[in-house]
Every structure is written in structure tokens, then in C-alpha cells.
Design goal:
Elements: H1 11-21, H2 67-79, H3 83-94, H4 104-110, H5 116-129, H6 137-140, H7 149-165, H8 173-181, H9 183-189, H10 195-208, H11 212-223, H12 228-241, H13 246-252, H14 256-269, H15 277-286, H16 289-302, H17 310-319, H18 322-335, H19 341-348, H20 353-366, H21 371-384, H22 390-403, H23 409-419, H24 428-441, H25 446-452, H26 459-469, H27 477-483, H28 489-502, H29 510-518, H30 524-537, H31 545-551, H32 557-570, H33 578-588, H34 594-607, H35 615-624, H36 628-642
Helix pairs in contact: 1-18, 1-22, 2-3, 3-5, 4-5, 5-7, 7-10, 9-10, 9-11, 10-12, 11-13, 11-14, 12-14, 13-14, 14-16, 15-16, 16-18, 17-18, 17-19, 18-20, 19-20, 20-21, 20-22, 21-22, 22-24, 23-24, 23-25, 24-26, 25-26, 26-28, 27-28, 28-30, 29-30, 30-32, 31-32, 32-33, 33-34, 34-36, 35-36
Length: about 650
Amino acid sequence: MIRFARPSIPAAVAVLAIAALLGAGCAEPPPPAPQKPAAQVQPAAPVAKPAAAVASAPASVAPAPAADAIGELVKRLAAASGGDERVAVIDEIGSIGQNALPALDGLMAACHDEDPRVRWHAVRAIGLIGEDARATLPRLLPFLTDADPLVVTQAAAAIARIRTDDNRPAVPEADAAAYAAAIEPLANTAVHPDPRARRAAVRALRTLTPSVETLAPIVSRHLADADPAVVIGAVQTFADMGDDAVPFLVKAMKDPASRYWAEVALAELGPDAAPATAVLTETVESGDVEQRLQAMLTLAAIGEGAAAAGPAIATVLDSGDASLQLAAAFALGRLKAAGADESLAKAAAGGKPFLASVAAWALARIHPDDPALVEQALGRLRQGLASTDPEARQAAVTGLSSLAEGMNSADREELAGSLVPLLADPDRDVGRAAGAALIRIGGDAVAALRAKVADPAVRLQIMEVVSALGPAAKPVAGDLVAALGETSDEVRGEAAFALAAIGAGAADGVPGLSAILADDAAAAGLRYAAAYALGRIGPAAAAAEPALRKLSESDDEMMATVAVWAALQVKPGDASLFETAIPRLRRALRADRELARLEAAVALGDIGPAAASAIPILELVSEDDPVKRVRDAAAEALGKIKAK
């Protein structure tokens, strides 16, 4: 959990943190369901044809071209007049890889072009030359502060590629100094506002393998920065680094100015941060209240790998310090701390209702096979659902869902029935917690959801939960099909998205969705949703394919993109759609919305080798997209397109 401002000291902070984290570590919810398509797809800049886009791969495998061919490319670059023409020549040079070294001066000149597209393609092409371009390292560093984030991203990637190709364990002193000079600029870029730039900088730092002694002071400085935007960027970066970040964060914890945010960053790493258990335990025992609180929450995020901290946390629970006891009880439950039974039992029997509930939950977590303890926890948490305190209700909801994995199906169904009304709780956080809990309960929640799907108070929230459950919610499909005929565009749109998530099992919705698609007077967003749902239903929506094909030529860029994507899902492998689909899907890879990029990558992969023109942009997305599942989808698509 990342808190976007330093917490206040009162116990309310622990309440909020526990309510948010109680569900962590329990049964995994289903994979994220498809979300709504973007309202707008940004057009893509022309992209390069790199010889090797992955930093760990050799920078060049192309055969050496004739010298006069390289010379001709250099001349064409110098003579190119427009941005599109210059990008096209740079792409051609970049595709040559190492053998493009004679074009290096021309590429460096292009790095200063007014057009940012030209700049980032040129920087990328330099990186693709590999180790032979290492003399340019000092000249690449200024581009880490370029105004365009893609230029920054490609500058960091170029440094990584050069060092990867220059795979000497012992680098000569002159080159070693150049690599060393890149460390601090890259570390500064690792907190860039753009996540693509941050990812590229982190990858480059991993390639350069700076020592803890070199990087730790920079990490500490960023974490001590008073600007929340800088600190949040740093936390996200360290989370992206995984366990590689732990040594630097442990060092940062030694500095009181950076300790709190180092703890937050370690919490983002979760179980990977287990090596920091000892230093976190020291803070639990002797830090200030704010730091002790976050240290316990961080240990809770690590989970059972931090069990050694149990005795120190139990001491805090016994201390009577109201500002720390809730976090202590919660952490003991997450750690499944052996030896904490006496402390937790005392708290569970005490006069503080919320603390007693958390302590009872912790005992049930530690002893899931003890029916009496589990029943005690469930009873207390059910009482919490009726609390007048929204924070207590939120914690009760997530606590119950975390224990649901040990229930039988009937008890899970009963629990779901008690959670559905809370979707309309006056406190939005409680409603969100109820939705997350129902998703964790999964298929056993479907009957309770269907029973209330017509209730105006909760129907939109139920549709969102159904969208997250996906095919498991097929029993609700008939109710959603009926909702397509209602007057509210909001209800109809949410019903379409829920049907999309159910997929092929929602085939009965094809007529209603097709009617929306054919209604020129319908709101654009509603028609997008209908087209998207038809695509997700797939071949069972074959009756809608002619309408989708026609709309793929629409002047509405978003409609055309969603329609051609959907047509490809309905008639997979239809080569007659490729000419229209590929350019639109390439542009969709640059959309702001995660789903647009994800679905575009999958669709391009399904097209296969015919989508070879999308390889450059897919390579960029596979490296630097801020969302892992989009990166994975792009990488998988590349494999399909490049397959013989």
C-alpha cells in the first residue's frame, strides 16, 4: 500500500491501513477482467525497425551491408526534409544494428532534431549499434532530461543496450568511467514522472550493476525529498526493481530522513523484502511512532517470511499503546506468528472492540484448523459489519473475506449474501471493500449477486463485480441481456461490459448488443461498449460481423478501432480484415488506457506474421509499458509474429 502523504500518528492511520491490507495474502482473486475500452486512442508516431529490442539480447545480428549502402543511407538522412522521411531512414539504419556504425554522426545530429519522434528514433538506433557506440555514452546522458518522455526512455534503453553488448567483465578504465558517470543520471531518471522512462532507467541500472555504496546515497536522497511526486516515483521504481532494491532500501533505513519512505517501498515489495526483516524489527523496537507503525505494516506485507519479528511485535501489542496495537495485532496475523497466542488472546478478550476483532482474526489466521477460534473471529467480524464506524465496517468486510477460503461453499454463499448490500454503503471505501471481497469469494458469490442484480441501489456495482468475475458469472448473463433494453445508458453500458467479461457464455446477448450497435442515435460510448462485448463473445457473435466490418471504416477513430478488433475476434484469421486492422491496432498500442494496449497486442499476435509491420512498436511496448500484463502480451505477440 502506498500512502500519498505522511500518515498522522493517531490509531485511525492503522485502522485505514489494516482495512486496506486485511485481504492481502488470502485466496487470490480472479485475473483482472477486461475493462472499458478507451474513449480515445492516440495516434502512434512512426516506429523504428530495431534489430534487437530486448536489452539482454545482442545489439546486432544483421549481416554486414555494403559500405556504399551505408553511405547512401547517411546521405538520405542528411537530405531528408520531413519528420516522417527522417524517421523512415533512421529506422532503416537502426535495423542494420552494429554495422550501422558509419551512420553514427548522422544519428547523433538527428538526436537534436526539433521533432521528438526523430529524436527518440535516433537515440534508439544508436543503442542498436551496441558496444561500438560506447564512445557516445557521455553524449547520450543529456537526453535523460529531454522534454519528451520517449526520448528519455530510449536514451536509458540505449545505455543499457550498449553495456549489454559490451559484455566484458573487466571494462577498460576509460569506458568504465563513462559507464560510472551514467549511474547518477539514471538514478535520477528512475523517479521520472513517466513510468516508461522509470522502467528503462531501472533496467539500465541493473545492466550497469552499481554497488550498494554507490547507489544507496542516491536512493536515500530521493526518499528524503520533500516533494511527494518525487518520493512516490521512487517508491514505484523500487517496487519495479523487486528484490534487487532491498539492499539499497535497507541502507536508506539507516537515515532517519529517508526511513519512513524506505519502509513504504519495502512494503510494496511484499515477500521479496524478507531480507529487511531484521532492520524493520529494530525500527519496531526503537523508532518513532510513525516509523514503528509503518515498520509493522511493512512486516505484515512481507508475511510469513518475516515471522522472526513476531516477538518484537507481540511486545508492542502488550504495551497498551493504542496508536500501535491495531497494527501489531494485524501484523501478527499476517505473519502467522508462533508464540503470539497469549498476547492476541488478551487483546481479543479486552474492552476495545475493534482491536478485539483484529486480534480474533489474527488468532484464526494463525490457527485455521481450530473451529472455536475461527468461529470467534467470524462472529466478531460479522458484528463489525453493523458498526457505525465505517473504518470498522471496512476492516470487517476484508477480514471476513480473508477467512472465506477456509469456509465451505454454503458458508461462502451466505457470507456473499451479507456483503452484497454493503456495495451501496454510504462510505465509498466500504463499498469498494465489499466488491473486492465478493470477487475473492468468486463463483460462490454469483447466486447472491444475481438475487440483487435488479435492485437499483446496487445493480451498477453488481455489474462491476460480475465484470471482474468473468465467465464464472455466466448465471447472471440472462439478467444482463434484459438490462440491455433499459432506458439508462449507464445501466446498458455496464451490462454490455459485464457480458463482455462473461465472453462466449453471453451469446444470448448478441441480438441486443447488435441493436445498440446499429442505433446511430445511441451515445458513442454505448456503441463502443456493444462492439467490444461482441468481440469478447467471439465467433458466437458471427451475425454481427458484417456490421462490425462496415464500422471498421468509420470516420470515428475509436469506433473503427474497436469494430475492426471485434471483427477479428468474431472471425479470427480473416485476412481480408488485416489491411484495415493492422494500422489501427498499431495506433492502439499507444493508447492511454491499459485495455486498449492489451487487446491490440493480443489481436496483432493472433494475426501472426502478416502483422510484421507492428514488430517495432510491439518491441517498445514489451520493454517499457508500465503494466506487466501488457508487456507480457506484447512479448507473446512478437513470438507469434516472428514464428516461421
